[in-house]
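Shipment paperwork, digital attachment
Item: protein structure file
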Amino acid sequence: MTSYSRRRWQRAERQAMSPRTSKSTKVSSRTSLTRRGDEKRERGSYLILVEGATEKGYFSGMRSRRGPQIEVDVIKGDHVTRVRKAVARVSDEYDAVWCVQDTELDRTLTDKMLHEARMGSKESKGGRKLHLGLSTPCFEFWLILHHDDHRKPFQTADEAKRKLKDILPAWSEGDTRFSDFAHGVTDACDRARELDREGDDHGRNPSTNVWKLARLLRADPEGPGSARS
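Attachment content:
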């Protein structure tokens, strides 16, 4: 055996007697996903379905790094169709699904929306239900309450929008920023509850039960009602 062959044989022998062990640096995707899922459940997860840019701008602005997970989608169609579409989105993926709508001062329309939500929830899997956030005459009344304790009835939804514009001249439906209302959320909740303590007198003019949703999103432990109820 040549000296070169002998050295190769000795090196192979040493490697066989002392095999190298390598440590895997691969991160378990399952562990990572589980961690994110646990965090999501702990913080709460809410789907909010809205009819326009005003509501979308407001609720999207409520997102925070440590607050609940908030997903906001605009859904198309008339009032009843939007409620029907919202019912179809109810699932175990979210702690609660809310559909935020205007009543337009129309009692018959409001009853139809409530009926659609109630019947759809009975047919949903797991008995989970759709929550309706209704404002009379419109969502802009909820925004007004952040700045003013308004209690006088409105004749139309447009009148409420003009009132909000008087309070915030820079406001527009397509450019609603939560930052313009953030300081008044607590006041808005208190004022809305004074008008409708239980949040179910949707025919009252003016009124809104959006305070229920706002307290959930702000993780207020004193807030009445439960997203899982």
